[in-house]
Amino acid sequence: MPRSRLGPLAIESKLGDHPSTSSVWRAIHVQHQKAVAVKVFSAPFGGTPEARRHFADEWERLKPIQHPGVAKCYGGGFEETDAYLAYELIEGETLSSQLERTGRLSWENTLDIAEGLADALEYLHSQGIVHGAISPEKIIITGFSPVLLDLRQDRFSSPFRTTRPPTVEQVARQAPELIAPGVNSPGDHCTPASDLYSLGALIYHAITGRLPIDGETIEQVRANAQTQIPVSPASIVFECPVWLDKLVMRLLEKDPAHRPPTAAAVKLALAEVRKRSLSRAGVAEHVSSGFSPLQVTTQREKDEARALLGRGVVDLNAAEEEEEEDVDATVWHDQPWFLIGGLVAILLLLAYVAWPASEQTLRKRAEALIAQDTRSALAQAERQPLREILVRFPDGPNAQWAQQQIDRINVIQFLHQLSVKIKNNLPIKDQGELLHKQAQEYAANGDFARAIDKYRSMVTVLGEDSQYETAVNAARYQIAILEKKASGETDAAKIVQNKLDEADELLANNRVVEARKIWYSLVELYGDNSNLKPLIDQAQKRLAENE
C-alpha cells in the first residue's frame, strides 16, 4: 500500500511474522496519537454501495466486543478503492513465531494457551460471532496470556477480505465441513463447532509440532481431512496427559455433532485436565471414574477403556443389567448411608475450603510452582501464594523470601517482553528498556565490561525512581550473570593470548614482518573489546617497539 495516510491514520510499517505478504500495518491515529494495527482490503472500484454498507455494519457490530483475549476492533473506513479495519495493537510474539523457533511447546504451556482461547471463544460465540480462522499466526502471546487477532463477522463472503489463496497449513487446520469437496463458500458452514475443530488442530500442532492432517497439496489435504484420523498426541509426545489427549481427539472429530457442544464445555474439560494432571491421578482412575466433559459414549471408547483396565469395569450394558436385576432395591442415591456420607463430605469440603492455608503451606505451593520453571507457573505463583504471603503474613519469616521471588518473576517477565520487542523491532517505551537494549548489544558482542558498566549506570541513575524498579532489578540480575561469565577466561582471551605467544615466537626467530601481521590483526579485530584491553595493549606495545 503506497500511501502514507489512510483516513485519520498515519501509516508506519507492516506487521506480521512475514511482513512482505502481510496486509496489516502499524499506524497512528493522528488526532488521538494512539498506535493501532490496521488491516487493509482492496476491492475493484471500491466495492458496490451495498457491499460498503454491509462492511460498515460489520465494523459497527465488532466495535462493542470487549474481552481480554480478543484484540478490540476500533472501527473501519474507506479510502478510494481500499477499505480498512483498525484493531488494538498487541505487542508480543505470535504463537506461529514461537513454534517456528521451538518446534513445539510443552503440554503445560499449551494448556495455558488453550484455556485462554477457549474463554475467548466462549465469549465470542455467546455474542453470535464465529472467528473462522483460528491459527498460530493470529494468536499473540502477551505476557502469559494469548490474544486472538483479526476478528471478523463476515470473513468469507464479504468483498472486503483477504484475496491471498490459503496455504496447505491453513487448510489443514480447518474443519472438514469447511473444506469438503463441493463446498464453495466456507462461510455457509462456519459454526462454533468449526471454531472448536480449529482450536483442537492448534492444540495438536502446539503439543506435537505437526499438523493433524497430512498432505503436500491443498487437494490432498481436502481429501485426507474427510477420512484421515490423526495419530493421538500422546502417541507422539509421551508426557502428554491422557486427559488432554482425549480432549484434543474429541475436538478433531469429523462430525461436528461429535465434538464438545460448546466452548464452555471445552473450558470445563481443560480445567479438569489441569486438576487431574496436578493431582497426578492415574489413567485407570481416570477411565473408571469418568471424565465429565468427555463422557465415554461410543463402543470404541468402551473398548479402549476396557483394554486400559484389563477387565470389563466399563461395560455399561452389564451395569444396566445388574440394575434391572435389583429392581426392588431402593435407589442408591436415596440410601441413608449415601445421604449421611454426602452431608459429611460436603461439610468437610466446606471446612477445607474455608480454612485458610498456613504460611508454610503457601510457601510449599509457591515452591512447587517455581520449580516447574515455566512462565505460566511463575505467573501463577506470583498471583496467588506469593502475594497471599505478603498480604496475610507481612511480618512472617517467609515475607522477605516471597518478595524476592516476586521481584525475580517480574524480572523474568520484563526480560522476556523486552526480548520479544527487540526481536520484532517493536518500539522501546522508556529509558529503562533502552539502556537494557544497549547493554545487551554489548554483551552479545562479548564485551562484558561495557555491558556491566551500562547496567551499573542504570542502577545509579534510575535506582531511586519507583517507575523503573523492575528494570533496575533486572540490571542487577544481569550484572551477576555477566560478572560470573567475565570472571573466567573467555574463548576470545585464549585465542588472543595464543596469537600473542605465536607472534613472540616469530619475533624471536627474526620473522618480524609475520609477527607484525599478527599484532595488526589483533588490534583491528579486538581493539574495541574492553574485556581484552590488557592483551590488545600488549600487541600495540609490540608494534611500537618493532617499528
Task: Report on this structure.
With 547 residues, the protein is α+β, with helices and mostly antiparallel strands. The chain folds into four domains: 84 residues, Phosphorylase Kinase, domain 1; 203 residues, Transferase(Phosphotransferase), domain 1; 125 residues, no CATH class; 55 residues, no CATH class. Helices cover 56% and strands 9% of the residues. Strands 1-2-3-4-6-5 form a six-stranded antiparallel β-sheet, covered by helices on one side. Helix 15 runs antiparallel to helix 16, helix 16 runs antiparallel to helix 17 and helix 17 crosses helix 20. The chain starts with a strand and ends with a helix. About 8% of the residues have low confidence. One of its GO terms (molecular function) is ATP binding. InterPro entries: Kinase-like_dom_sf (IPR011009), Prot_kinase_dom (IPR000719). Keywords: ATP-binding, Kinase, Membrane, Nucleotide-binding, Serine/threonine-protein kinase, Transferase, Transmembrane, Transmembrane helix.
Overview in brief:
Helices cover 56% and strands 9% of the residues. It is of the alpha+beta class and 547 residues long.
For this structure, the CATH topology of the largest domain is: Transferase(Phosphotransferase), domain 1
Mean pLDDT: 81
**CATH architectural group of the largest domain:** Orthogonal Bundle
Q: Report the sheet-strand fraction.
A: 5-15%
At the fourth level of CATH, the homologous superfamily of the largest domain is Transferase(Phosphotransferase) domain 1
Radius of gyration, whole Å = 30 Å
Largest sheet: 6 strands, antiparallel
Question: Per the principal axes of the C-alpha atoms, what is the gross shape?
Answer: globular
Instruction: Tell me the total number of β-strands.
Output: 9
Tell me the count of domains: 4
* SS element count, helices: 23
Low-pLDDT runs of 5+ residues are: 281-298, 304-329
Q: End-to-end distance, in Å?
A: 60 Å
Percent in helix: 55-70%
Reading side by side through the largest sheet, how are the strands ordered? Answer: 1-2-3-4-6-5
CATH class placement of the largest domain: Mainly Alpha
Which structural class do you get from the secondary structure elements? alpha+beta
